[in-house]
Design brief:
The chain has about 270 residues and is mainly alpha-helical. About 70% of the residues lie in helices and about 5% in strands. Strands 1-2 form a two-stranded antiparallel sheet. About 20% of the residues are buried.
């Protein structure tokens, strides 16, 4: 299960999505997510087709997207069940105190579909954008906040380091669990309290390892005279190209279409 978590991973490539400016991709993902919460059934179809085109263009295998969704299966099922049970409407069947309505089934389906596309879109951002480019893009987008004395560079650096170390911590957790299982530890049987107690031998060394890595990273940054974003230069300067402007226009038109389409058809 831990190996199925692909959040924060970057897959190098030379596709159109890989070559886009990180600011373009960040803004596009934000607009796409906003449109998911403002559209209806036909709008979801347009969003799905656009997302499928992005996955095909990026060269990322669709199984990687599905792999990133496996850890969220329980959340998806829980969300779907809640929408089916607590949405009023025309009842499909009734058992004891449980009533499932037609509107509840539709809401459950679209809510789960929305979460899947949301996760897939954000995964595509990290899959096609290196951590350094993501840091530069976030910092440039948030640069107007510097006038309000907001530590934009430090904020972007912390977010990127957090994303960067997610795969490392997952790998470390998997190694610790394998070592504990080799010593006879059992994490899958017994009551819920017993299984929670069995996680203690994993959490303690994991926290120690995380703090040790953080201390080593801080020491390395200090040895390289890192002192924040003030006066820093960049190896690669972000410049919006023609493809970036075209991509932003396409995303804006798509968002306007998926928001307006349900209202026009309704």
């Amino acid at each position: 299960m831990l190996k199925d978590i692909t959040l924060g991973q970057f897959f190098p490539g030379d596709s159109l999505l890989h070559r886009l400016d990180p600011r373009t991709k960040i803004v596009s993902v934000i607009l796409f997510v906003v449109s998911l919460f403002l559209t209806g059934s036909w709008g979801y179809l347009l969003c799905f087709l656009f997302l499928a085109w992005c996955v095909k263009t990026s060269g990322i295998a669709p199984k990687m997207i599905l792999k990133s969704l496996k850890p969220l299966v329980i959340i998806l099922i829980f969300t779907g069940v809640l929408n089916m049970l607590y949405t009023p409407g025309d009842p499909l069947f009734h058992f004891w105190i449980i009533t499932v309505t037609k509107q509840g089934v539709w809401n459950a389906f679209f809510m789960m579909f929305r979460i899947v596309m949301l996760i897939a879109a954000t995964s595509m951002l990290t899959y096609t954008t290196s951590p350094i480019a993501l840091t530069d893009g976030l910092e440039r987008l948030l640069s107007p906040l510097k006038r309000l004395h907001v530590p934009v560079h430090e904020f972007a650096m912390m977010m990127t380091i957090a994303l960067r170390f997610i795969p490392t911590l997952i790998e470390e957790t998997d190694k610790i669990m394998s070592a504990q299982k080799a010593r006879g530890a059992d994490f899958e049987t017994g009551s819920l309290i017993r299984r929670a107690k069995a996680l203690v031998p994993i959490l303690v060394p994991l926290f120690i390892s995380a703090f040790r890595r953080a201390d080593e990273l801080a020491t390395a940054m200090e040895c390289r005279l890192y002192h924040g974003g003030e006066g820093r230069t960049r190896l690669n300067t972000l410049v919006m190209q023609r493809n970036d402007h075209i991509a932003l226009c396409v995303v804006v038109i798509l968002c306007a279409a998926v928001i307006a389409l349900p209202r026009l058809m309704g």
